[in-house]
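#struct-help
A.M.: can someone run this one for me? Single chain, 582 residues.
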Amino acid sequence: MQQAAAAGTARPDAAESWSSLPWMMLDLARRRAAAPMIRHWRDGAWRSLSWGEFAAQVGSLAAWFRARGIMPGERVLLVSESRPEWNIADVALMAIGAVTVPTYVTNTVADHAHVIADSGARAAIVATPALAARLAEAASGRLDWLLLLEAGEAPAGLPAHRWAEAAATPCDLPLLLAEVEQIPPGRLACLIYTSGTGGLPRGVMLPHRAVLANRAGIAGFLERLGVEGTPYLSFLPLSHAYEHTVGGFLLPSCGMEIVYSRGAERLAAELPEIRPTLITAVPRLFELLRARLLAQLEKETPFRRRLFEQALALGLRKLDGPPLGPVERVQDWLLDRLVRSKVRARFGRRLKALVSGGARLDPDLSGFFLALGLPLLQGYGQTEAGPVISVNLPWDNARHTVGRPLEGVEARIAGDGELLIRGPLVMDGYWGNAEATAAALRPGPDGETWLHTGDVARLESGRLVITDRKRDFIKTLGGDMVSPAKIEGLLMAEPEIAQAVVAGEGQPGIVALVVPAEGMAEKAGAAIARVNAKLSSIERIRRWAAAPAPFSVENGLLTPTMKVKRRVVLERFAGEIGALHR
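D.P.: on it. Structure tokens below:
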């Protein structure tokens, strides 16, 4: 039975009518020229870029790109960590009608070769000489030139220009603003290659309207949060579709200052220093933060550990019930001041939301943070949809769900359980891949075209609950259908297990390959036993083994956004998995 379509109920900011991303950004820069836009670490100190400085450099870069012969519709790679030059080049390319192709700095030579060949990019903007050398090796003569952001020797055989040269180009900014005002919302803005958990990445064609639709769906929430003029700590790379939309356009356009983190190893020091009101990241980061908090707790006295455990237990009671009694409410008030306030201090004391996306957030993980007074929320999206589809909110947070669809997003559950999405946020298709486009954008039960997400979901009181990837269900020998995402999520929620993949297609039962957390190899079995106690008989893990190697980006078993490539792991360790089934 099909569930009826649902749409979000948030009120978007309807005051603006920008039809393109460059128009929005340059128009805002004209209004708030002196306001800080981006903060970044350079030469041993935090540096700030104002909106006016940003717009002036966008104009110079746009003029320089035109002088180099970049034409409307041509694709240009962006290979850099998050930094102001990334944002400037991105908007400048869009302003002249070119198409940005964000690319991960962690890409291998083979990854780069695929993206260059598939996109037909004719030039690239590259952060460092080391990245440029890898890109030049992949290009095989396909690129006309590189624009290097940092000093150093350029790779041989490929013309290279320097950022200082481009940034010094004279421009007529008012004329450029008049031009971008005419860009239609349906023009292709960027080509973002999905990192994918299997197979070659595909180029998702996102027009301006898709990203603007995400902004329209979120702006009202941000206004209610009251985050204008406060810092957002950006952790994900701008090459990720989520950060490209949210950190690159949505949050700055709503008045937040973007602060680029120096990385996971500096995050603990940056949080109390920057005092952000908003952070977005993938679940893996929150797993690491929880592990760090628990490791620090082990160094405390038994009395302090008991206080922490009581604060956590009462916090979970407030979330899940039963309600606290009079004495417990007083205890909870005291524990908030003795325990939770100190945890909040580590995060800067003014957090209004920690938003998790990119993969399933285990309810136990979100419960841990929420019980300690930290507002961890789960959202959901796909590169093919702008990418934000739904999100929980601090005042409307059901942590076992991924929230309500944004305003303007229609959601329908097909007869086989697949989530279908429709609205202006949906992509135009996959670049140069008509077959894949036809599979993703096709008629739904009503005969209209919907984005077929490939995710199995259900609607509960207007909220989406994602249960699995449609193609990943395991059918055992007995005909039972088992969700690997559920089991893997439970396994990785255990502190002793860092990564896990389960298997069992066509077999009598389920087996697992796990990567134990550091120093926890001997305790992994106990963790698996605890997980099995939560599972039905057909889901329980019959046998397990430690994986021969951790799953990483470098060995091709993790996507750049820290998602395990299930199918690649199953193929690479087929022998080990086969032995578990015997």
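A.M.: thanks! The longest helix spans residues 326-346.
D.P.: also worth noting: Confidence is low (pLDDT under 50) at residues 9-15.
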